[in-house]
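Try it yourself: sequence plus cytidine-5'-triphosphate, in.
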Amino acid sequence: MNVQKIRDGLVIDHIRAGTGLRIFNWLKLDRVPFSVALIMNVLSDQMGKKDIIKIDNVIDIDYSVLGFIDPNITVNVVEDEHVSRKISLSLPEQVENVIHCRNPRCITSSESGIPHVFHLVDKKRAEYACIYCDELYRAGIGEFL
Ligand code: CTP
Ligand code: ZN
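Structure, out:
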């Protein structure tokens, strides 16, 4: 499938197949006035299949949250039709108010106004634990354990 090159903006590449729509929605790209593309299930030598998002505008992205969603992503910065920079992502040490602890006995459930903080406990498995109750979340599959 051919999708036009962009002029000035970002290409979010090497997204795990199936995760592109989640990132597209998280960035609220359905409501922007500039050109955007979500390409799903692109064949890739390294990954089998991958998703790609092209954004023809320079936008601000929280790279730590993006790394939490998928650390294998590459963000290409495109200037004047050429890739000027490749940003590699990684799993952040901590995320705040990105996922909500689902444990009904957690202090975040019984009291309001407490930030939901998860910290990285197992890099290999991409596992995060709630700092209050140790509820486990696996970022790789996007699910609580
Ligand atoms: N791209 C684009 N518009 C441009 C330049 C590049 O949409 N003006 C896209 C390419 O289609 C590709 C991505 O940005 O999907 C990265 O481009 P490039 O670095 O040229 O590709 P590769 O070398 O294949 O990247 P990598 O090695 O990171 O896989
Ligand atoms: Zn908790």
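One thing you can check immediately is this: The beta strands are 9-16, 36-44, 48-55, 74-79, 82-88, 94-96, 117-122, 127-130, 136-138, 143-144.
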